Amino acid sequence: QDSYFKDVLIRYPVLFEQLFEYQPYRALSTEHLRQDWHSLIAKETEVELWMEQLRYFKLIHQFNLMRFYQAGEISVSEFKQQLTGLAEFILNQVVKFSHKEIKAKLTDVSISPRDLMVIAYGSMAVRGMKITSDLDLVFVLDSQLISPDDRVFLHRWIKRIMHHLNSQMYHGLLYEIDLQLRPNGQSGPLITTQVEFEHYQQTEAWTWEHAAMVKSRLVYGTKAQKQWHHQFRKSILCQSRVAAKVDTDLQLMADKLAAAHRNKAHEADFALLGAILKFAHYHPQLADVYDLDELQAQVEEIKKPG
Length: 306
Prior knowledge:
Blueprint lengths: L1 H10 L4 H4 L10 H11 L6 H24 L5 H30 L10 E6 L13 E7 L6 H19 L10 E2 L12 E3 H10 L3 H6 L3 E5 L2 H15 L5 H19 L5 H13 L12 H12 L3
Parallel strand pairs: 2-3, 2-4
Antiparallel strand pairs: 1-2, 1-5
Helix pairs in contact: 4-5, 5-6, 10-11, 11-12
């Protein structure tokens, strides 16, 4: 924690101002974030200034959350949840701003911001983000088909979203982005349709890709789209599986990651994800839970004799 303050104040001296302003603790609700953002951003502004302002917005909220955490005003769980809420708000702004930019150039396409769904995996999905967390994202179009013109628009839109999130500027970058969990990984398109996503998960995905869905959540989308993802995720997790195959497949992936990162940090995580894949068919309530601690407690209860 101390190294965070030292490093961030050296890199961004503008944050010293926060030390001399009394900041009473306030949970970062979406409404509070919206008010703070609108008070900071000018209605008409150049793109680069908008990008810097959004980075500054992230820095000050992140900085103050760390202050509240260090002072014992919020728990580690609340700290992670609010960092996640901040990331979701920022992603929301970036998606809409990027759409506006591309729409100004490709006016004939009728795709709206409501047609896009963004699925997060990992720490963002389970509301467990840290200061250094990246975003593992999958972009899905709420449609059955993508026309050639639509695909051009969508490709440029996603590229623009990535540009806004991970471009290094004076106030740093917003978030590192990882898209490897999209269908077909690095060889797959940047965006897929809902039908294509469902087909891939049902017929082509590896066991470890289903395990990753335990820690997945739709973070940008309408209420109906979020309900679709929850139900589809549940249908995948609750499939009947051969326990031995789950163990073998996930051990292979754990070994691969251990060799790549020279540690076995993923093994405990994989053990929990594997347990969900093995037990959810018989205990479908597991697929309704997104909190890892609660999942661990439920798995341990299931494992008890009798």
